[in-house]
């Protein structure tokens, strides 16, 4: 079960990073499949003198990727002002009154009745 969780986390991280590096994925996909793209998908495959080698398909894929990034509302890098907390404070001129009815005790001021540390640890006798 622990292995499945680790594998799932790694897979999820990979997917998130893959989304951020979309253009790199397009380039890698083009380089891996360049022979197939040049032979079957290229618009200029009938004109070998142009030496296109599928770059027209690469350009189309990059344009598609750029359009998808522009449509993504989370990818837009605009500065937006967000008000996190807003409270209007008005002063009436009077000091607030506090009613303290409980007696405060300070335990740290009381001396301990028995301290076992002092009975064990003491300075050496000369």
Overall strand count: 0
N- and C-termini, Cα separation:
66 Å
- Stretches where pLDDT is under 50 for at least 5 consecutive residues are none
Number of helices: 5
Shape: elongated
Roughly what fraction of the amino acids lie in strands?
under 5%
Round the mean pLDDT to the nearest integer and report it.
76
Organism: Chitinophaga oryzae
Protein name: Secreted protein
Q: What does this protein look like?
A:
By secondary structure, the chain is mainly alpha-helical. It has a domain at 22-71. Helix content is 48%, strand content 0%. The chain is elongated. The two termini are 66 Å apart. The relative contact order is 0.06. The mean pLDDT is 76.
SSE layout and pairing:
Elements: H1 2-20, H2 22-32, H3 34-41, H4 55-71, H5 116-120
Task: Kindly summarize this structure in a few lines.
With 126 residues, the chain is mostly helical. It contains 5 helices and no strands.
Task: Name the descriptors.
126 residues, 48% helix, 0% strand
């Amino acid at each position: 079960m622990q292995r499945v969780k680790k594998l799932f986390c790694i897979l999820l991280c990979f997917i998130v990073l893959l989304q951020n590096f979309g253009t790199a994925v397009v380039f890698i996909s083009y380089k891996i499949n360049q022979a197939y793209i040049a032979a079957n998908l290229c618009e200029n495959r009938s004109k070998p003198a142009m030496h296109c080698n599928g770059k027209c398909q690469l350009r189309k894929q990059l344009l598609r990727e750029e359009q998808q990034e522009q449509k993504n509302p989370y990818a837009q890098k605009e500065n937006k002002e967000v008000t996190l907390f807003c409270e209007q404070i008005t002063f009436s001129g009077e000091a607030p009154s506090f009613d303290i009815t409980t007696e405060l005790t300070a335990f740290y001021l009381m001396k301990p009745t028995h301290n076992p540390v002092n009975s064990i640890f003491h300075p050496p006798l000369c």
